[in-house]
Specification:
By secondary structure, this protein is of the alpha/beta class. The chain contains 12 helices and 8 strands. It has an 8-stranded parallel beta barrel, surrounded by 6 helices. α3 links the parallel β2 and β3. The chain is globular. It starts with a helix and ends in a 10-residue tail after the last helix.
Length: 327
């Protein structure tokens, strides 16, 4: 049993405490932006001339798994295969997971325009093959208030649910905000997303439902509405853009405060000056040991101790820049 398995069982049983908050590192970007998703190869002065290679990216993943703080490591199926073969997860408490589908709204490679159209379902990874390496995957869906697009996305989701059930495969469900104009007012859109989630899951039995959700943090009101509507539905938040260090820690703090029990951050970890230090202080904020502003100062202290130049001054990195966090 991994640390994730133990925590999710406690949360589901109603025995949650802050140290049970689940943190996942989402290093599955090679199935979306691809090469740029590996992140820049930073020098000590934060300059860079290229992106990390796949081998360097795998080394970064190994370092985070070895650190043994995150609860889930999400990767592509191809990278999980290599990591498993190299023994990274042997005896590890970190739960490996794969991105189980790659719909068109994450096809955002350099110069691509696919994401300017309503999301279409697509799935590369085979559950029967990947079941040898893990029993957990992420399935992503995007609702756009477009009847044909949303209908086809839901049909594909139901096919996946049946496939997962047949192969003893668990999943968590990622629901993005619409990727095109929906005609819905910005104030109402978070509630449109909430309604789409609950409607999509209403016809599924307990055995068919996701282990938890991965959704954008659309503010306290929308998050509290979703978590209070159905306490059996475990909600997690995704990280979005890199932002400031304060944005990262503030999102963890507010998400936990308003009912989320999972945080799945990609760029907020991968694009940090020191990803391992970032993870360390994310955990401290989630546990309630540090407040967000204290974590920023501690993070900068760790950068100074390691000789790594920060991308921003301490004062700039302490500023909340993401509008949804300004409440």
């Amino acid at each position: 049993m991994t640390r994730f398995d133990a925590k999710i069982a406690k949360i589901r049983a109603g025995n949650y405490k802050r140290t049970d908050f689940i943190i996942a590192d989402a290093k599955d970007g090679d199935m979306g932006p691809s090469i740029p998703s590996c992140g820049p190869k930073l020098e000590k002065d934060c300059s860079y001339t290229r992106y990390r290679t796949r081998a360097e990216f795998l080394d970064q993943i190994k370092a985070v798994v070895t650190q043994d703080i995150v609860d889930i490591m999400l990767t592509s199926a191809s990278n999980l295969e290599l990591l498993t073969e190299s023994g990274v997860y042997a005896g590890s408490n970190v739960k490996p997971a794969i991105r189980a589908n790659d719909a068109t709204d994450i096809w955002v490679g350099r110069g691509a325009t696919y994401a300017s159209q309503p999301s279409r379902p697509y799935r590369t990874a085979s559950l029967s093959v990947n079941r040898r390496h893990t029993d957990l995957g992420l399935y992503s869906i995007t609702f756009n208030n477009d009847l044909d697009a949303d209908y086809n996305s839901l049909l594909a989701f139901l096919d996946f649910v049946e496939d997962a059930h047949d192969h003893g495969f668990n999943y968590f469900l990622e629901v993005f905000n619409p990727n095109v104009d929906t005609g819905i007012s910005p104030d109402l859109q978070p509630h449109f997303v909430n309604d789409c989630i609950c409607r999509a899951l209403a016809g599924l039995t307990r055995a068919q439902r996701p282990q938890f959700l991965k959704i954008p943090f659309n503010g306290p009101k929308a998050l509290e509405e979703l978590t209070s509507y159905d306490p059996s539905l475990i909600v997690g938040v995704l990280g979005g853009g890199a932002g400031t260090a304060r944005d990262t820690f503030e999102l963890i703090h507010q998400a936990e405060k308003y009912g989320a029990r999972v945080a799945l951050f990609g760029r907020k970890i991968n694009l940090a000056e020191d990803p391992l230090a970032m993870v360390k202080f994310m955990r401290a904020v989630a546990d309630g040991d540090l407040r967000p502003e204290e974590a920023v100062r501690a993070y900068h202290g760790a950068l100074q101790a390691s000789g790594q130049q920060p991308m921003r001054t301490l004062s700039d990195d302490t500023v909340v820049t993401e509008k949804v966090l300004m409440n």
